[in-house]
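REVIEWER CHECKLIST
Item 1: Sequence provided? yes
Item 2: Single chain? yes
Item 3: Sequence as submitted:
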Amino acid sequence: MLDKSYLVPWGKRGSLSTDTEAAVLAELVHESTPLPAGARRERFERSFAASVGSRHAISVNSGAVALQMAIRMLDLAPGDEVIATPQTHRATVQPLLDHDVQVRFCDIDPTTLNLDPAALEALITPHTRALLLVHYGGCPAEMDTVMALARRHGFLVLEDCVHALGARYRGRSPGSLADLATFSLRNAKSSTALGEGGLITCDRDDWAERLHRLRAPDGDTRTAYPQPAPAGLPGTSYAMPLQRGCLRRPGSDATMPEVVAALGQAQLAGVETAVARRRALAGRLDEVLGRYPFLTPQSAPAHSAHAYHLYTCLADHQELRDRLVLALDRRGVEIQLRYFPQHLLPQWRQRGHLRGECPVAERSWFEQHLNLPCHPTLTLHQQDYLIEALDGALAELNGGVPAPAALPATVCGPR
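Item 4: Structure as written out by the authors:
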């Protein structure tokens, strides 16, 4: 696409900002307590854990770092196998390149675009150590089946919840459905910190303790060997701590800044509102698509509630998809396609992965799927224009014949 201004742009901000955030920033500017002190960070971690129903939430400075550290908790060893979804951003699986393990990509369900439990079961071997999945676009994965397989075969499950804040699975929140989970607070997400931030949630106390040490610059303090503490410098209260003589494991200095934590805390209250706006727009988009049988929206099972971080639909074939993208672009609607199948990226091809490994995910990307704008910062006028433009583009592809005004809501399927 050419670089241009769109009447309906792709969302650069996924959350709603209010005067509350501005007041928090003003308070921090005049804060007398040192900003690295951690009181706001600890408050945010407690609030976030409670919001998703997890025992622990450990904050870090980005979602990518959260994934790296969570994968460290899996204690992967040479010869282990890890199953992962190809339908995700590269950050989900990129940390696995640092481990001497075999990654087996699992194909997706053609309706939800999440990891297909039937395909998962066929990939499990005695060497399977872990599973990495994503709730694609905010549509919860089928976690009961996944976790039953994990418990039966003895592997761990990491859920990447980067899209799923505000979603529900059988009344529970992603982030509390597996062994551990990660979140991102980057700008396009439903809760942001005006930049970068990430969290890891889990119920295990030992993991939480390890993660707290791992994110610190000093790492994991080990047994000290004898070394006397030097006296304080003349005229000061300074003295070198005894830990100077300790053996350490390396840390990462990945601590979330207090400013980010304070903004994250302020944003938590607005998550439901932001997600409600996404769902309302998704309902309008569903209504339009329901009148044209050659385009099908991603759908969540009846027992789940979609968060609509992405609104994804699937065309019957590639020519139709490509013509629709061009028709919407001409009308000033910005379209993006997310995501290229991970197993076909160069770094994974170098490890032996080939086309044909995940045929459903490949057909989805190369022939069918596109993502429509669906974010809470769209004005009502922009939403109305999006609906009009989508209906007009689909009518054009339908031979210039507009579809009937409405069909029963059931044609859209459960969301």
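Item 5: Key structural point noted by reviewer: Confidence is low (pLDDT under 50) at residues 221-225, 237-245, 406-415.
Item 6: Recommendation: ____
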